[in-house]
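Lab notebook, bench 4. We co-purified these components, and the gel suggests they stay together. Before we commit to crystallization screens, I want a quick structural picture of the whole thing.
Request: model the full complex, all chains together.
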Amino acid sequence: MARLFPVRHVMGYIFSLVLSLVALGVVFWDLNVTAGLTILTVCAVIQASLQLVVFMHIGETSNKRSLYLNIILAVFVGVVTIFGTLFTMIWGFR
Amino acid sequence: MKINDTLPLEYSTEENSNKVFGFWIFLGAEIALFSTLFAVYFTLWNRTGSGPSGSELFELNGVLWETFLLLTSSFTCGLAIHAMRLNLKKPMMIFFGLTLLMGLGFLGIEISEFVTYVQDGATLQTSAFLSSLFVLLGTHGLHVSMGFLWGAGIMLQIKRHGITPETANKSFIFSLYWHFLDVVWIFIFSFVYLKGLM
Amino acid sequence: MKWSEFFVTGEPMIYGAMVSIVLVSLAILVGLTYFKKWGYLWREWLTTVDHKRIGVMYIIAALIMLFRGGIDALMMRTQLAAPEMKFLDAQHYNEVFTTHGVIMILFMAMPFVIGIMNVVIPLQIGARDVAFPRLNAVSFWMFFAGAMLFNISFVIGGSPDAGWSAYFPLASLEFSPTVGNNFYSLALQISGVGTLMTGINFIVTILKMRAPGMKLMRMPMFTWSVLITNVIIVFAFPVLTVALALMMFDRIFGSQFFTMSNGGMDMLWANLFWVWGHPEVYIVVLPAFGIFSDIISTFSKKNLYGYKSMVVSMLAIMLLSFLVWAHHFYTMGAGAMVNGFFSITTMAIAVPTGVKIFNWLFTLRKGKISFTTPMLYAMGFIPIFTIGGVTGVMLAMASADYQYHNTMFLVAHFHYVLIPGTVFGVLAGMHYWFPKIFGFRLNEKLGKSAFWLIIVGFNVAFMPLFFLGLQGMTRRQYTYSESTGFGPLNMIATVGAFVLAIGFVVLVYNFYWSFRHSPRNEGGDPWDARTLEWSTPSPVPVYNFARVPEVHEQDAYWYSKKKNVPLYSGEYESIHMPNNSGQPFILGIVMFLLGFFLVFSWFIPAIIMGVVTVIMLAWRSFERDHGYHISAKEVMATENKLRGDSV
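Here is the predicted assembly.
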């Protein structure tokens, strides 16, 4: 039975539950927007990386450089799309 | 077919290893897709027109259950792959079954949430904010639904053929997809619901 | 819905088109039956998973679309030839410039580029096929379904009329109430998904299926350009997918993304469109850069100057291409900060492009140049593209752009970039690699005549537009009065357009002539070229490489020829091949119908088609298809026959 529940996976699961709870805190603690968004971003990014590394085994093959590069590029494009859109459509709009 | 024994079963042929690699690239494209949906949502989230805003609409209770179910299903999905690598068919099937059941539970809650919204008069047509909300959540929900059908199909194949290089490969790729949906949900949970209620 | 709304009525030209479509379809059906070619067509082409045949089908489709888009262009030029022409009315003109743009970019340039990729890439890297041959066929049929869906709008329902960029609010249901823009969103969506799958397929192929010894920095430049192009495809096309889906939701399901009320934001469409649209420009231009690199190096008998800087500059272009999109709408009202930022990134992208131009020039320097048809296109490309690039930098300056934004100056600029940068590239590539697939070369004399007609026609057609634009003639205006003084330059441009058209006719006539008269048996390497694909016999056997080549250097085949190092060693082995399948073709039909029903909001048939799609995916998942093997003996027999017992 024990070998069906490897420690890495169990720890990963508990850790992601904890991170979700911390993120939930922003609703109840009285924070300003910047602090709230910082907590949310940090928790979400850690959780996403946790899924990638622990559950999706991104680093287990000889392709891992290409795989990380793929994710980095995708995140680059994603971030550019999100912040670029906000920049052109809202923040930088006259 | 050349079989490489030094790698886990799902990578054992060149074709299978290419499939895993190709799927990772597909996930890269999915990241770009959801980022665009988030970009749309962030641009439109306070353009509520005459409709309700997020903080008036969101119910924390259902969302927490959804999050819990999806996180746990991601965990069991990881355990299923772990069992597969130990070549244990029965535990693998049980973990996969649990994963899909929790996915179904997630979908149930999401659908009832949508029904409540619509009953409250918050529809796709009401405002730009609601359009972007429904399309962002709907795209994720559609992915989960497709994942459910796909996973069920793979379970049937494992039942029929056992853990072979082919079924192992399919299961592993499915697990990548399912974990990815969990990642997307984390961002929806944080930046749609929690930020909306903040 | 009445029949008179379903079919486009009241236009003599469209009636003519309907009649000719029916006649051509009938002729094809009758011809296939008479010559008993149905089985051949089905077995050898419609169900094929061979990358070479899929590539050829892409190119044929692209050529057909080139003529469809070209006729649109001639109609526009005829209408603008003189002041107050009555050839087209305003609505018809709107439809024509919209379909011209969409077809030329998405259904001509894209499939042409992808077709050449398909034909060449596996051969160039020493692979037997792409990574996922079946998926490749699906990509093609998705593209084809999208292209047909878009073209059918011409006679059924009405063409889109809001420009190829389909800006809201003009493209919204309120201002474009016909189904035309539904066709736009669905046809582009279907073929776009196909393109995305091509992108994934080729990245895996190039990264994982290269011949032993071919390190990344030994890859031919065309392979590099295709790798980078496909990375852009994979990360840019999802943005288009989302934008088109939102457009569909707005138009068919009444959502409020780009509307004028309830919080909608019409400018968001333009933003999303160009987040995809600018990388798209590089998707069609970069492969042409790769083609030119290979051709210039081959016909100068020199290795490419500055290989590393070529690669680095393409990587820089890839990253920058995602950072420049707002330069398409400087005048929309964004602040100085936004316009300043995008001005700078846009000008920066000229730097890596300039590096490439100099590298080509230095490759030519002191080379032993032979002016073949492909080389002529490459030589024509360099100066013309430079004019396009320099005017692009003019447009990049936000404050100056306010003067000539959306004028004919812009039209001239992007034709000066896209025609040499893409059309010349794919035509050069087509002439260059044609013998590899068919075993004979296109006639050089006809090829060169076509080239001179095209290049002269092109410059006569588009150079005047720069001046018209600076004089204040805007794009997309369907007529003008005599007092504007635009008449003479427009007439010159129209004459140029017709010369260009004659050039394309000669180009196609060249196929016919060469099929009948070109000398056969020129061997596998008629150009004395440098890369792996030329080490195979022409036409290439279905398995590409009888034995897997071993690569020691850049320009592997050249190295093997000059240093007498054999590329191939060892015994023939049996070769594993994928089976043909009719599923991709059927999926294409299903997608076409799904799109068609959604265009007209016929939801029940659309849902049925959606269910059929899911069933087909499941079918594929449950299918057990392990392909077949070609025995070593058979391989040896084929090789001996093709190589005349010389190897």
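Chain A touches chain C at residues 66, 73-74, 76-77, 80-81, 84-85, 87-89, 92-94 (CB under 8 Å). Worth comparing against the SEC data before the next meeting. Residues 1-60 of chain A form one domain.
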